[in-house]
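Shipment paperwork, digital attachment
Item: protein structure file
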Amino acid sequence: MNTSIHIPDDLARRLENHISSAKCEVKSKNAFIVKAIRELLDEVENENNWCEEIMAWQGVNLEIEREKLTGFDRDLEL
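Attachment content:
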């Protein structure tokens, strides 16, 4: 997939400085951005980020009658 993104100037300068540094293992901006996206998606899609209660939840068959929810079932005894 090809895409075009706007990178703010300060972030673009940081990216350029990092890519051109000796400590950077990735030597192209494209490869660096793809790696960053992959790592972020791996992190947010990882089920281990969710607590046990959420992962174990099976849903509920919850039926609420409108009258009980709104209070319209009460006799106001006017």
